[in-house]
Amino acid sequence: MGASLSSGGGSRSGRRGRSYRKMSDINVTPFVDVMLVLLIVFMVTAPLLTSGVPVDLPKSEAKQIADEDNKPLEISVMKDGKIFIGETEVERDRLIPLLSSMTNNDPDRRIFIRGDQGLPYGDVMDVIGSVNKAGFRKVALISNPSK
């Protein structure tokens, strides 16, 4: 007998007591997932960016050299006297022939020498002298900046 009449401004869908609101929160889970993946990628690639073999370099007040088009060759002299070109160990008597072949006998090719700070001065000077005697003019010593 009676009709049910709605008394004003509610929802016209016929549902009583329930109102749905749009979700206004930002879902940060995908953002966190992407950031964690990037973090892992950087953590894996960071150790690969170091050059050559680990050498305990002395401190210096010199400025860093800007990188140019041709990358310099790095010669590392370890504390035990072993010599490396890049990451390849080289015998002392094979150093100059190998340098000449790697640089195509270009006397203007830059060569960086990294000597361990615990190494006697004479051992580093022997390497510099050999490189100089082979005709390479652009030879530099590498050190860590002092703080």
UniProtKB/TrEMBL annotation:
Gene3D superfamilies: 3.30.420.270. Keywords: Cell cycle, Cell division, Cell inner membrane, Cell membrane, Membrane, Protein transport, Transmembrane, Transmembrane helix, Transport. The keyword Transport applies. Its main location: membrane. InterPro entries: ExbD, Tol-Pal_TolR. It is a single-pass membrane protein; Single-pass type II membrane protein. The keyword Transmembrane applies. One of its GO terms (biological process) is protein transport. It is found in: Cell membrane. One of its GO terms (molecular function) is transmembrane transporter activity. GO terms for cellular component: plasma membrane. The chain crosses the membrane at residues 26-49. Belongs to the ExbD/TolR family. PANTHER family: EXBD MEMBRANE COMPONENT OF PMF-DRIVEN MACROMOLECULE IMPORT SYSTEM (PTHR30558), TOL-PAL SYSTEM PROTEIN TOLR (PTHR30558:SF7). This is Protein TolR. It comes from Micavibrio aeruginosavorus (strain ARL-13).
